[in-house]
Protein backbone atom coordinates (compact mmCIF):
# COMPACT_ATOMS: atom_id res chain seq x y z
CA UNK A 1 0.00 0.00 0.00
CA UNK A 2 2.76 2.43 0.94
CA UNK A 3 4.78 1.54 -2.16
CA UNK A 4 1.75 2.25 -4.38
CA UNK A 5 1.24 5.65 -2.74
CA UNK A 6 4.91 6.47 -3.11
CA UNK A 7 4.92 5.45 -6.79
CA UNK A 8 1.87 7.57 -7.58
CA UNK A 9 3.28 10.58 -5.75
CA UNK A 10 6.61 10.25 -7.63
CA UNK A 11 4.81 10.02 -11.00
CA UNK A 12 2.61 13.05 -10.29
CA UNK A 13 5.22 15.39 -8.80
CA UNK A 14 8.51 14.25 -10.30
CA UNK A 15 8.16 12.36 -13.56
CA UNK A 16 5.25 14.37 -15.02
CA UNK A 17 7.01 17.68 -14.21
CA UNK A 18 10.42 16.91 -15.74
CA UNK A 19 11.31 17.38 -19.40
CA UNK A 20 11.08 14.19 -21.44
CA UNK A 21 13.70 13.57 -24.11
CA UNK A 22 11.30 11.99 -26.61
CA UNK A 23 8.66 14.73 -26.60
CA UNK A 24 11.05 17.59 -25.68
CA UNK A 25 8.62 18.78 -23.02
CA UNK A 26 7.19 17.73 -19.69
CA UNK A 27 4.34 15.17 -19.88
CA UNK A 28 2.08 17.50 -17.90
CA UNK A 29 2.69 20.45 -20.26
CA UNK A 30 2.17 18.21 -23.28
CA UNK A 31 -1.13 17.02 -21.85
CA UNK A 32 -2.34 20.54 -21.08
CA UNK A 33 -1.32 21.82 -24.53
CA UNK A 34 -3.37 19.16 -26.31
CA UNK A 35 -7.10 19.29 -27.03
CA UNK A 36 -9.29 19.02 -23.93
CA UNK A 37 -11.34 15.82 -24.03
CA UNK A 38 -11.95 15.46 -20.29
CA UNK A 39 -15.08 16.26 -18.36
CA UNK A 40 -15.17 17.73 -14.87
CA UNK A 41 -15.80 15.13 -12.20
CA UNK A 42 -17.52 15.91 -8.90
CA UNK A 43 -15.51 15.56 -5.73
CA UNK A 44 -15.46 12.28 -3.84
CA UNK A 45 -17.91 13.49 -1.19
CA UNK A 46 -20.51 14.34 -3.85
CA UNK A 47 -20.01 11.01 -5.60
CA UNK A 48 -20.25 9.11 -2.35
CA UNK A 49 -23.49 10.93 -1.52
CA UNK A 50 -24.90 10.21 -4.99
CA UNK A 51 -24.68 6.46 -4.41
CA UNK A 52 -26.94 6.48 -1.36
CA UNK A 53 -30.60 5.87 -0.81
CA UNK A 54 -33.04 8.11 1.03
CA UNK A 55 -35.27 6.68 3.75
CA UNK A 56 -37.35 8.00 6.62
CA UNK A 57 -36.80 7.06 10.23
CA UNK A 58 -38.68 7.83 13.44
CA UNK A 59 -36.73 9.73 16.09
CA UNK A 60 -36.46 7.92 19.40
CA UNK A 61 -37.32 10.61 21.95
CA UNK A 62 -35.85 8.61 24.85
CA UNK A 63 -32.23 8.84 23.70
CA UNK A 64 -32.49 11.03 20.56
CA UNK A 65 -31.37 8.29 18.19
CA UNK A 66 -32.52 6.71 14.94
CA UNK A 67 -32.21 3.04 14.01
CA UNK A 68 -30.62 2.34 10.61
CA UNK A 69 -29.95 -1.23 9.48
CA UNK A 70 -30.20 -2.47 13.07
CA UNK A 71 -27.75 0.12 14.48
CA UNK A 72 -28.54 3.26 16.49
CA UNK A 73 -27.21 6.61 15.29
CA UNK A 74 -27.15 9.70 17.49
CA UNK A 75 -29.05 12.71 16.21
CA UNK A 76 -27.74 16.17 17.21
CA UNK A 77 -29.93 17.63 19.92
CA UNK A 78 -30.81 20.73 17.90
CA UNK A 79 -32.91 18.42 15.69
CA UNK A 80 -34.70 16.73 18.61
CA UNK A 81 -37.98 18.43 17.66
CA UNK A 82 -38.25 16.52 14.34
CA UNK A 83 -40.57 13.48 14.72
CA UNK A 84 -39.62 12.04 11.32
CA UNK A 85 -36.05 12.12 10.01
CA UNK A 86 -34.98 11.81 6.41
CA UNK A 87 -31.58 10.13 6.16
CA UNK A 88 -29.30 9.18 3.30
CA UNK A 89 -26.96 6.19 3.56
CA UNK A 90 -25.49 3.27 1.66
CA UNK A 91 -26.24 -0.18 3.04
CA UNK A 92 -22.68 -1.36 2.38
CA UNK A 93 -21.06 1.60 4.19
CA UNK A 94 -22.75 2.83 7.37
CA UNK A 95 -19.75 5.03 8.10
CA UNK A 96 -21.36 7.77 5.96
CA UNK A 97 -24.91 8.53 7.19
CA UNK A 98 -26.34 12.01 6.63
CA UNK A 99 -29.42 13.84 7.86
CA UNK A 100 -31.03 15.79 4.99
CA UNK A 101 -33.76 18.36 4.61
CA UNK A 102 -36.88 16.55 3.32
CA UNK A 103 -37.94 19.58 1.24
CA UNK A 104 -34.71 20.65 -0.45
CA UNK A 105 -32.50 17.58 -0.07
CA UNK A 106 -29.75 19.66 1.54
CA UNK A 107 -27.42 17.78 3.85
CA UNK A 108 -27.92 19.09 7.37
CA UNK A 109 -25.29 17.08 9.22
CA UNK A 110 -23.60 13.75 9.45
CA UNK A 111 -24.85 11.11 11.89
CA UNK A 112 -22.50 8.94 13.93
CA UNK A 113 -23.13 5.59 15.67
CA UNK A 114 -24.25 5.74 19.27
CA UNK A 115 -21.31 5.93 21.68
CA UNK A 116 -22.55 3.78 24.54
CA UNK A 117 -19.27 4.04 26.40
CA UNK A 118 -19.31 7.81 26.30
CA UNK A 119 -22.97 7.94 27.27
CA UNK A 120 -22.28 5.73 30.29
CA UNK A 121 -19.56 8.04 31.63
CA UNK A 122 -22.05 9.94 33.74
CA UNK A 123 -21.39 13.34 32.16
CA UNK A 124 -24.47 14.85 30.54
CA UNK A 125 -24.12 17.31 27.72
CA UNK A 126 -26.11 20.53 27.70
CA UNK A 127 -28.94 20.92 25.21
CA UNK A 128 -28.24 23.34 22.40
CA UNK A 129 -30.89 25.70 21.02
CA UNK A 130 -32.98 24.45 18.15
CA UNK A 131 -31.16 25.48 14.99
CA UNK A 132 -30.45 23.97 11.55
CA UNK A 133 -26.69 24.13 12.15
CA UNK A 134 -24.97 20.74 11.78
CA UNK A 135 -22.72 19.31 14.41
CA UNK A 136 -19.06 19.63 13.49
CA UNK A 137 -17.42 16.22 13.11
CA UNK A 138 -14.51 15.42 15.39
CA UNK A 139 -11.06 16.17 13.97
CA UNK A 140 -9.45 13.19 12.22
CA UNK A 141 -6.64 11.46 14.12
CA UNK A 142 -3.15 12.25 13.01
CA UNK A 143 -1.37 9.56 11.05
CA UNK A 144 1.72 8.03 12.66
CA UNK A 145 5.17 8.52 11.23
CA UNK A 146 5.72 6.41 8.11
CA UNK A 147 9.51 6.17 8.23
CA UNK A 148 10.15 7.43 4.68
CA UNK A 149 12.15 10.29 3.24
CA UNK A 150 10.93 13.86 3.81
CA UNK A 151 10.74 14.72 0.07
CA UNK A 152 8.72 11.62 -0.77
CA UNK A 153 6.55 12.21 2.31
CA UNK A 154 5.74 15.73 1.09
CA UNK A 155 4.82 14.30 -2.33
CA UNK A 156 2.51 11.76 -0.73
CA UNK A 157 0.87 14.46 1.44
CA UNK A 158 0.37 16.71 -1.61
CA UNK A 159 -1.20 13.83 -3.50
CA UNK A 160 -3.48 12.99 -0.56
CA UNK A 161 -4.51 16.64 -0.21
CA UNK A 162 -5.89 16.66 -3.76
CA UNK A 163 -8.58 14.14 -2.77
CA UNK A 164 -8.14 12.22 -6.02
CA UNK A 165 -8.78 8.50 -6.03
CA UNK A 166 -5.70 6.30 -6.52
CA UNK A 167 -4.75 5.32 -10.06
CA UNK A 168 -4.46 1.66 -9.01
CA UNK A 169 -6.84 -0.88 -7.56
CA UNK A 170 -6.08 -3.62 -5.05
CA UNK A 171 -6.23 -7.16 -6.39
CA UNK A 172 -9.63 -7.97 -4.87
CA UNK A 173 -11.27 -4.80 -6.18
CA UNK A 174 -9.69 -5.28 -9.60
CA UNK A 175 -11.14 -8.78 -9.85
CA UNK A 176 -14.52 -7.51 -8.70
CA UNK A 177 -14.49 -4.72 -11.29
CA UNK A 178 -13.64 -7.19 -14.06
CA UNK A 179 -16.53 -9.41 -12.95
CA UNK A 180 -18.92 -6.44 -12.80
CA UNK A 181 -17.81 -5.37 -16.27
CA UNK A 182 -18.57 -8.83 -17.60
CA UNK A 183 -22.02 -8.81 -15.98
CA UNK A 184 -22.81 -5.32 -17.27
CA UNK A 185 -21.70 -6.26 -20.79
CA UNK A 186 -24.48 -8.85 -21.08
CA UNK A 187 -27.01 -7.41 -18.63
CA UNK A 188 -26.61 -10.25 -16.13
CA UNK A 189 -27.74 -10.02 -12.52
CA UNK A 190 -25.12 -12.59 -11.55
CA UNK A 191 -22.87 -15.13 -13.20
CA UNK A 192 -25.32 -17.92 -14.08
CA UNK A 193 -22.53 -20.50 -14.26
CA UNK A 194 -20.91 -19.77 -10.88
CA UNK A 195 -21.47 -22.10 -7.91
CA UNK A 196 -22.77 -19.26 -5.70
CA UNK A 197 -25.94 -18.41 -7.62
CA UNK A 198 -28.96 -17.71 -5.36
CA UNK A 199 -30.86 -20.80 -4.25
CA UNK A 200 -34.08 -19.47 -5.76
CA UNK A 201 -32.37 -19.36 -9.18
CA UNK A 202 -31.47 -23.07 -9.20
CA UNK A 203 -33.33 -25.39 -11.55
CA UNK A 204 -35.89 -27.55 -9.73
CA UNK A 205 -36.97 -30.71 -11.49
CA UNK A 206 -40.22 -32.52 -10.82
CA UNK A 207 -38.37 -35.31 -9.08
CA UNK A 208 -36.45 -32.91 -6.83
CA UNK A 209 -39.66 -31.05 -5.98
CA UNK A 210 -41.25 -34.34 -4.94
CA UNK A 211 -38.21 -35.19 -2.81
CA UNK A 212 -38.36 -31.82 -1.02
CA UNK A 213 -42.06 -32.31 -0.31
CA UNK A 214 -41.43 -35.78 1.17
CA UNK A 215 -38.65 -34.43 3.39
CA UNK A 216 -40.97 -31.66 4.59
CA UNK A 217 -43.46 -34.33 5.64
CA UNK A 218 -40.63 -36.32 7.19
CA UNK A 219 -39.71 -33.30 9.35
CA UNK A 220 -42.97 -33.85 11.23
CA UNK A 221 -42.19 -37.50 12.00
CA UNK A 222 -38.40 -37.76 11.96
CA UNK A 223 -36.13 -40.25 10.26
CA UNK A 224 -33.41 -40.55 7.65
CA UNK A 225 -33.33 -39.45 4.00
CA UNK A 226 -30.68 -40.30 1.43
CA UNK A 227 -29.42 -38.55 -1.72
CA UNK A 228 -26.84 -40.36 -3.85
CA UNK A 229 -25.32 -39.69 -7.24
CA UNK A 230 -22.09 -39.33 -9.16
CA UNK A 231 -19.77 -36.34 -8.49
CA UNK A 232 -21.06 -33.18 -10.16
CA UNK A 233 -24.60 -34.43 -10.69
CA UNK A 234 -26.17 -31.82 -8.36
CA UNK A 235 -26.32 -33.32 -4.85
CA UNK A 236 -25.11 -30.15 -3.10
CA UNK A 237 -27.45 -28.00 -5.20
CA UNK A 238 -30.31 -30.30 -4.21
CA UNK A 239 -29.46 -29.77 -0.54
CA UNK A 240 -29.43 -26.00 -1.10
CA UNK A 241 -32.89 -26.18 -2.66
CA UNK A 242 -34.08 -28.43 0.17
CA UNK A 243 -32.71 -26.05 2.81
CA UNK A 244 -34.44 -23.09 1.14
CA UNK A 245 -37.76 -24.97 1.01
CA UNK A 246 -37.47 -25.99 4.67
CA UNK A 247 -36.71 -22.39 5.64
CA UNK A 248 -40.18 -21.41 4.41
CA UNK A 249 -41.79 -23.87 6.84
CA UNK A 250 -42.86 -22.56 10.19
CA UNK A 251 -40.83 -23.58 13.26
CA UNK A 252 -38.47 -25.87 11.33
CA UNK A 253 -34.90 -25.76 12.65
CA UNK A 254 -32.28 -26.61 9.99
CA UNK A 255 -28.61 -27.35 10.70
CA UNK A 256 -25.83 -28.13 8.21
CA UNK A 257 -22.75 -30.18 9.11
CA UNK A 258 -19.74 -28.26 7.77
CA UNK A 259 -17.02 -30.83 8.57
CA UNK A 260 -18.30 -34.32 7.75
CA UNK A 261 -14.80 -35.79 8.09
CA UNK A 262 -14.53 -34.73 11.77
CA UNK A 263 -13.92 -37.17 14.58
CA UNK A 264 -16.43 -37.87 17.33
CA UNK A 265 -15.20 -35.04 19.59
CA UNK A 266 -15.42 -32.40 16.85
CA UNK A 267 -18.80 -33.82 15.84
CA UNK A 268 -20.19 -33.12 19.31
CA UNK A 269 -18.65 -29.64 19.28
CA UNK A 270 -20.39 -28.81 16.00
CA UNK A 271 -23.70 -30.29 17.14
CA UNK A 272 -23.59 -28.13 20.24
CA UNK A 273 -22.91 -25.05 18.14
CA UNK A 274 -25.69 -25.86 15.65
CA UNK A 275 -28.38 -26.41 18.28
CA UNK A 276 -27.27 -23.81 20.81
CA UNK A 277 -26.21 -26.03 23.69
CA UNK A 278 -22.91 -26.25 25.53
CA UNK A 279 -21.38 -29.70 25.17
CA UNK A 280 -18.25 -31.28 26.55
CA UNK A 281 -16.76 -33.64 23.96
CA UNK A 282 -15.15 -35.89 26.59
CA UNK A 283 -18.55 -36.51 28.21
CA UNK A 284 -20.61 -38.22 25.50
CA UNK A 285 -23.35 -39.34 27.88
CA UNK A 286 -23.90 -35.79 29.11
CA UNK A 287 -23.74 -34.41 25.58
CA UNK A 288 -26.26 -36.90 24.23
CA UNK A 289 -28.59 -36.21 27.15
CA UNK A 290 -28.47 -32.43 26.66
CA UNK A 291 -29.01 -32.73 22.91
CA UNK A 292 -32.01 -35.03 23.33
CA UNK A 293 -33.56 -32.72 25.91
CA UNK A 294 -33.10 -29.80 23.53
CA UNK A 295 -34.73 -31.69 20.66
CA UNK A 296 -37.61 -32.97 22.82
CA UNK A 297 -38.35 -29.43 24.01
CA UNK A 298 -38.38 -28.25 20.39
CA UNK A 299 -40.72 -31.08 19.36
CA UNK A 300 -43.14 -30.36 22.21
CA UNK A 301 -43.32 -26.66 21.35
CA UNK A 302 -43.44 -26.90 17.53
CA UNK A 303 -44.44 -30.51 16.70
CA UNK A 304 -41.54 -30.54 14.18
CA UNK A 305 -38.26 -32.41 14.31
CA UNK A 306 -35.03 -30.50 13.78
CA UNK A 307 -33.48 -31.20 10.38
CA UNK A 308 -29.77 -31.97 9.96
CA UNK A 309 -28.19 -31.83 6.47
CA UNK A 310 -24.94 -33.74 5.88
CA UNK A 311 -23.23 -33.18 2.53
CA UNK A 312 -20.30 -35.37 1.40
CA UNK A 313 -21.58 -38.01 3.80
CA UNK A 314 -19.24 -40.63 2.30
CA UNK A 315 -16.47 -38.91 4.30
CA UNK A 316 -18.22 -39.39 7.68
CA UNK A 317 -16.39 -41.76 9.98
CA UNK A 318 -18.23 -45.00 10.89
CA UNK A 319 -18.27 -44.18 14.61
CA UNK A 320 -19.90 -40.80 13.87
CA UNK A 321 -22.60 -42.42 11.72
CA UNK A 322 -23.32 -44.90 14.49
CA UNK A 323 -23.45 -42.11 17.08
CA UNK A 324 -25.80 -40.09 14.87
CA UNK A 325 -28.13 -43.08 14.44
CA UNK A 326 -28.30 -43.67 18.19
CA UNK A 327 -28.78 -39.97 18.99
CA UNK A 328 -31.78 -39.64 16.65
CA UNK A 329 -34.00 -42.11 18.53
CA UNK A 330 -35.29 -42.57 22.07
CA UNK A 331 -37.69 -44.75 24.03
CA UNK A 332 -36.42 -48.01 22.49
CA UNK A 333 -36.51 -46.59 18.98
CA UNK A 334 -40.18 -45.64 19.29
CA UNK A 335 -39.59 -41.88 19.32
CA UNK A 336 -37.62 -40.22 16.52
CA UNK A 337 -36.04 -36.95 17.62
CA UNK A 338 -34.26 -35.80 14.48
CA UNK A 339 -34.62 -35.68 10.70
CA UNK A 340 -31.29 -36.40 9.00
CA UNK A 341 -30.58 -36.01 5.27
CA UNK A 342 -27.39 -37.67 4.01
CA UNK A 343 -25.95 -36.82 0.59
CA UNK A 344 -22.96 -38.57 -0.97
CA UNK A 345 -21.59 -40.29 -4.04
CA UNK A 346 -21.47 -43.97 -4.88
CA UNK A 347 -19.08 -44.69 -2.02
CA UNK A 348 -21.84 -43.85 0.47
CA UNK A 349 -24.27 -46.25 -1.20
CA UNK A 350 -21.57 -48.94 -1.18
CA UNK A 351 -20.88 -48.41 2.54
CA UNK A 352 -24.56 -48.72 3.41
CA UNK A 353 -24.60 -52.21 1.86
CA UNK A 354 -22.03 -53.46 4.36
CA UNK A 355 -23.19 -55.43 7.38
CA UNK A 356 -21.85 -52.74 9.71
CA UNK A 357 -24.26 -50.12 8.31
CA UNK A 358 -27.36 -52.30 7.75
CA UNK A 359 -29.11 -50.79 10.83
CA UNK A 360 -28.65 -47.33 9.29
CA UNK A 361 -29.59 -48.37 5.75
CA UNK A 362 -32.83 -49.95 6.96
CA UNK A 363 -33.90 -46.60 8.46
CA UNK A 364 -33.80 -44.67 5.16
CA UNK A 365 -37.41 -43.59 4.66
CA UNK A 366 -36.88 -41.21 1.72
CA UNK A 367 -34.40 -41.88 -1.08
CA UNK A 368 -33.40 -40.06 -4.24
CA UNK A 369 -30.80 -41.33 -6.69
CA UNK A 370 -29.59 -38.60 -9.06
CA UNK A 371 -28.70 -40.26 -12.33
CA UNK A 372 -26.83 -38.93 -15.34
CA UNK A 373 -28.88 -36.15 -16.94
CA UNK A 374 -30.07 -36.37 -20.51
CA UNK A 375 -29.07 -33.66 -23.04
CA UNK A 376 -32.63 -32.31 -22.95
CA UNK A 377 -32.54 -32.02 -19.15
CA UNK A 378 -29.21 -30.19 -19.35
CA UNK A 379 -30.66 -27.81 -21.94
CA UNK A 380 -33.61 -27.05 -19.66
CA UNK A 381 -31.19 -26.44 -16.76
CA UNK A 382 -29.01 -24.10 -18.84
CA UNK A 383 -31.95 -22.14 -20.24
CA UNK A 384 -33.36 -21.77 -16.73
CA UNK A 385 -30.02 -20.43 -15.47
CA UNK A 386 -29.84 -17.87 -18.28
CA UNK A 387 -33.47 -16.84 -17.75
CA UNK A 388 -33.00 -16.31 -14.01
CA UNK A 389 -29.79 -14.32 -14.57
CA UNK A 390 -31.64 -11.92 -16.88
CA UNK A 391 -30.11 -12.78 -20.29
CA UNK A 392 -31.99 -15.64 -21.98
CA UNK A 393 -30.40 -14.86 -25.39
CA UNK A 394 -26.80 -14.93 -24.17
CA UNK A 395 -26.19 -18.22 -26.00
CA UNK A 396 -27.51 -19.38 -29.35
CA UNK A 397 -29.64 -22.51 -29.42
CA UNK A 398 -26.94 -24.34 -31.38
CA UNK A 399 -24.32 -23.63 -28.70
CA UNK A 400 -26.71 -24.75 -25.95
CA UNK A 401 -27.33 -28.04 -27.72
CA UNK A 402 -23.61 -28.53 -28.46
CA UNK A 403 -22.25 -27.98 -24.95
CA UNK A 404 -25.05 -30.08 -23.43
CA UNK A 405 -23.95 -32.96 -25.66
CA UNK A 406 -20.31 -32.45 -24.68
CA UNK A 407 -21.13 -32.32 -20.94
CA UNK A 408 -21.92 -36.07 -20.94
CA UNK A 409 -24.82 -35.72 -18.53
CA UNK A 410 -22.84 -33.89 -15.81
CA UNK A 411 -24.27 -30.49 -14.74
CA UNK A 412 -20.98 -29.42 -13.14
CA UNK A 413 -19.06 -30.06 -16.36
CA UNK A 414 -21.75 -28.14 -18.23
CA UNK A 415 -21.44 -25.07 -15.99
CA UNK A 416 -17.63 -25.12 -16.13
CA UNK A 417 -17.72 -25.23 -19.92
CA UNK A 418 -20.33 -22.45 -20.09
CA UNK A 419 -18.28 -20.32 -17.68
CA UNK A 420 -15.22 -20.64 -19.93
CA UNK A 421 -17.30 -19.54 -22.93
CA UNK A 422 -18.65 -16.54 -21.00
CA UNK A 423 -15.14 -15.44 -19.99
CA UNK A 424 -13.91 -15.82 -23.58
CA UNK A 425 -16.88 -13.84 -24.91
CA UNK A 426 -16.31 -11.05 -22.39
CA UNK A 427 -12.62 -10.89 -23.32
CA UNK A 428 -13.54 -10.45 -27.00
CA UNK A 429 -16.58 -8.28 -26.11
CA UNK A 430 -18.73 -10.50 -28.31
CA UNK A 431 -22.42 -9.74 -28.41
CA UNK A 432 -23.46 -13.38 -28.11
CA UNK A 433 -21.90 -16.78 -27.49
CA UNK A 434 -22.12 -18.63 -30.79
CA UNK A 435 -20.68 -21.78 -32.32
CA UNK A 436 -17.62 -20.00 -33.70
CA UNK A 437 -16.61 -18.92 -30.22
CA UNK A 438 -17.25 -22.44 -28.92
CA UNK A 439 -14.92 -24.03 -31.48
CA UNK A 440 -12.25 -21.39 -30.82
CA UNK A 441 -12.40 -21.98 -27.06
CA UNK A 442 -13.24 -25.66 -26.66
CA UNK A 443 -12.43 -27.05 -30.12
CA UNK A 444 -10.13 -30.03 -30.63
CA UNK A 445 -7.13 -29.45 -32.97
CA UNK A 446 -7.45 -30.98 -36.43
CA UNK A 447 -5.56 -34.07 -37.54
CA UNK A 448 -3.13 -32.05 -39.69
CA UNK A 449 -2.28 -29.76 -36.75
CA UNK A 450 -1.81 -32.78 -34.48
CA UNK A 451 0.51 -34.49 -36.95
CA UNK A 452 2.58 -31.31 -37.36
CA UNK A 453 2.98 -31.03 -33.58
CA UNK A 454 4.10 -34.67 -33.33
CA UNK A 455 6.55 -34.16 -36.23
CA UNK A 456 8.09 -31.11 -34.51
CA UNK A 457 8.49 -33.07 -31.27
CA UNK A 458 10.38 -35.77 -33.15
Report on the structure:
The protein is of the alpha/beta class and 458 residues long. Helices cover 43% and strands 15% of the residues. It has 18 helices and 13 strands. A six-stranded antiparallel sheet has the order 1-4-5-6-3-2, with helices on one face. Strand 2 and strand 3 form a beta hairpin. About 3% of the residues have low confidence.
CATH topology of the largest domain: Rossmann fold
**What's the CATH architecture of the largest domain?**
3-Layer(aba) Sandwich
Shape: extended
Tally of contiguous helical segments? 18
> Can you give the mean pLDDT?
82
In short:
This protein has 458 residues and is α/β, with parallel strands linked by helices. It has helices at 2-15, 27-33, 44-50, 116-119, 150-161, 171-186, 206-218, 235-247, 264-274, 284-302, 318-327, 346-352, 358-361, 375-389, 397-406, 411-428, 435-442, 447-457; strands at residues 53-58, 65-68, 71-74, 84-90, 93-100, 107-113, 223-229, 254-257, 307-310, 329-330, 335-336, 339-344, 364-370. It folds into four domains: 2-40 and 145-161, no CATH class; 44-115, no CATH class; 202-370, Rossmann fold, CATH 3.40.50.300; 375-442, Helicase, Ruva Protein, domain 3.
Topology:
Elements lengths: L1 H14 L11 H7 L10 H7 L2 E6 L6 E4 L2 E4 L9 E7 L2 E8 L6 E7 L2 H4 L30 H12 L9 H16 L19 H13 L4 E7 L5 H13 L6 E4 L6 H11 L9 H19 L4 E4 L7 H10 L1 E2 L4 E2 L2 E6 L1 H7 L5 H4 L2 E7 L4 H15 L7 H10 L4 H18 L6 H8 L4 H11 L1
Parallel strand pairs: 7-12, 7-13, 8-9, 9-12
Antiparallel strand pairs: 1-4, 2-3, 3-6, 4-5, 5-6, 10-11
Helix pairs in contact: 1-5, 7-8, 14-15, 16-17
